[in-house]
Design a protein that fits this description.
Elements: E1 7-14, E2 18-24, E3 30-37, H1 40-53, E4 55-62, H2 69-77, E5 82-85, H3 90-96, H4 100-106
Parallel strand pairs: 1-4, 4-5
Antiparallel strand pairs: 1-2, 2-3
Length: 133
């Protein structure tokens, strides 16, 4: 009998060419981090990697209206809950230092019920994306 997979939450710091992902458990413990290309194949690899660690309850994505839009669309198409995560303010980033692997750990939603769900921009619409709920 196979062991029941633990529930995990992903966080992704998005960039133009690469996405840095982290996975945490339900207590906030870091389970791993990895970098993936910002391509459809990279999105598939990112999701497969998260799923190899556990059952995905949500993925926090930075920039669902810009560099993270493609990833958010891909995850949504695979029935994964996407939570939009805002960048930390610049003062906090300067004080703690800029690091994509560290930033992706900060991108995970602490409690998915308390964050707004991200909606990737409609590629057929002009403007900045969908109104927020």
């Amino acid at each position: 009998m196979a062991a029941k997979k633990r529930s995990v939450i992903g966080g992704v710091d998005t960039r133009r060419d690469t996405h840095h992902a982290a996975v945490i458990d339900s207590t906030g413990g870091l389970l791993g981090g990895a970098e993936f290309p910002s391509t459809t194949a990279g999105y598939a690899d990112l999701l497969a990697w998260i799923r190899s660690i556990g059952r995905v309850s949500a993925v926090g994505v930075e920039g669902t209206g810009s560099y993270g839009a493609g990833l958010a669309r891909y995850l949504t198409s695979k029935k994964v809950t996407v939570v939009e995560v805002d960048r930390p303010d610049r003062r906090a980033r300067r004080a703690k230092g800029k690091s994509d692997p560290i930033d992706c750990h900060r991108r995970r939603p602490r409690d998915p019920r308390r964050h707004r769900h991200g909606h990737p921009e409609n590629p057929h619409r002009t403007g900045r994306g969908h109104p927020r709920p």
